[in-house]
């Protein structure tokens, strides 16, 4: 079984933004370096992904960065793997594996 791990650039940066606020810019840069070493493809946000994220925001009122993660999963017909309870509001709009 092959698993492709992808993450959109917005939510990837959002995760390091928490380090910016909590531990400073150096900690956030270190976290980005750690992420770069993982087998995760960071996917850029284009207009279509942005439109899909905006639609999900309007329909489900997800937090901003979560909209992009959901949009990427939906666009790629992929399963979203998360422990973030914010995604409960999307119901069956996405295939989700809860960890």
Radius of gyration: 14 Å
Contiguous helical run count? 4
Average pLDDT for all residues: 82
Main sheet: strands, sense, barrel:
2 strands, parallel
N-to-C series of helices and strands: EHHEHHEE
| Alpha-beta content class | alpha/beta
Across the major sheet, the strand order is 1-2
Q: How big a fraction of the residues is strand?
A: 5-15%
Identify the CATH class.
Alpha Beta
**Beta strand count:** 4
Shape: globular
Count of discrete structural domains: 1
CATH architecture: 3-Layer(aba) Sandwich
Helix percentage range: 40-55%
For the record, give the distance between the C-alpha atoms at the N and C termini, rounded to a whole number: 19 Å
CATH level 3 topology = Rossmann fold
Low-confidence stretches: none
User: Please, what is the CATH homologous superfamily?
Assistant: 5'-nuclease
């Amino acid at each position: 079984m092959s698993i492709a791990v992808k993450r959109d650039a917005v939510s990837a940066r959002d995760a390091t933004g928490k380090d910016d606020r909590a531990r400073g810019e150096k900690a956030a840069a270190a976290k980005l370096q750690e992420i770069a070493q993982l087998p995760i493809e960071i996917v850029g946000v284009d207009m279509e992904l942005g439109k899909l994220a905006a639609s999900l925001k309007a329909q489900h009122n997800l937090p901003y960065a979560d909209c992009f993660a959901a949009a990427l999963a939906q666009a790629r017909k992929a399963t979203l793997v998360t422990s973030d309870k914010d995604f409960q509001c999307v119901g069956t709009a996405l295939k989700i594996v809860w960890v």
